[in-house]
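Rotation project, supervised by the postdoc (A.L.). Task for the rotation student: set up a whole-complex structure prediction and record inputs and outputs verbatim in this book. Inputs entered:
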Amino acid sequence: MKLLFKFFLIPFFLTAVLSCEVHLEDNTRILVEGTIKDQDNMPVPDAKVSVHTRRGNFSGGENSYLLGEGYSATDGTFSVISFYNKDEDFAIEVAFGETYSTYVYKSNTLNFTPVNLTFDLGTVSLKKMASFNYNIVRISGESTSITYSFRYIEGFCLESFEGETLSEYQSACYQERFIAQTLNDNNPDYEWLLQVPLGEIVEFTYSINDEPEITEFITINEDNYDFTFSY
Amino acid sequence: MTLRSLIKTFWFTCISLFCSIGFAQENVSENESEITSKSSFLDSEGRQRFFAITAGGHKPFTSGDNFMGDGLEGKSGIDFKVQMYIYKHFFIGLATGASYFDVKNQELVGSYRKSRIAENYIYLGYEFLPTEKLRLGLNISIDSDLDYKNTGFSTSDIAEQHDSAKLNRYGLYLHYELAKHFMIYLDYSYNVSTTDINVPSELKDFFGKGKYSTIGLGLVFTIGSRDLISRFIN
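Outputs recorded:
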């Protein structure tokens, strides 16, 4: 048994642990370039462009490893020099905190090397984000309940590529999100904040005491949009 | 066989030669040194040596519009060299060492913090004798092997990444003789590393060559009092 442990299990364990290490391509650098514009076609300066590779970890989640990073210039152009990794989850993220939406270019690079070692993302459109602060307040006294929902566009765009071909099945760009909740005597009031692209419409649907649903459309036209609904 | 393993073999051979030939000639050398010989800027029989072994440290300085000049900052380095005088003061040498750098601009080179260049090279040179105590040497590398080990990534799961290069090194040194076989040295070198890094065409100039200079200080031990060819001729 000891022999089995020594000659088989230890090498197996070491291989399993060491295989979690990320091995970057030696003697290789790539260039990531493009231009960032907002929904009004205006350049977005100072957006962060980061190149990542991802790996599963022991807990079943994913770790993200930074290979290169840079920022867009005043005219919105960016040019980031990075290491390269051949991996199923090679990603380039364009982000600007909560001010703008986030764009992710994801590619399987196991069998793919870009032409001239350059990932040209072209024009990346980021949407300026607004904070939609909603506050549902009960003023009608006890035993009144409300069921409501918000339908809105999230500020995230993932484009997944197989080589140079966009995989629409694996992509998810500015998708519609839906949240719903019921408030009653146990929990009569609720306040929350959503990040929504500026200029988008939030669909608010509610029903008080199981009466027919009513829908309101709210255009987010301010950076900080406060919405209070009393029932 | 790589240059690195070749240099290791040469080191071993050189040390063996020190012991066998160098010490075996010591009695002859002492007698020779008593002979008042003709001394000039180019040659001096009395100051002829067979081997010189140097050990020291250096400070690297990056320069130029390239990935080293714009992206790295020199920190420190170590040097070990053995040079054998082939004929009079003409020598061939083997060197191994390392230079350490910090990354000062990750946007230009990638997201890592430190780089270590392992340097192995063969060099040729000539030593002049400007004064009684000083030796002025000029040398140039003829074959080389550089290994850039890049470390300090955002996570310890990425241990290191390697780049390789060839070195063109132009060196100058001053040896000050404290004793017959013991000196201190001060040296300067200008280094151009021609990398093997694959990059987009617009970055070829930036990553193709890295330039750095070094200023070093250390100790020199010499062995023997005759050059290699003289040992066979005379």
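Student's summary: The two ends of chain A are 72 Å apart (CA to CA).
Supervisor addendum: Confidence is low (pLDDT under 50) at residues 13-19 of chain A.
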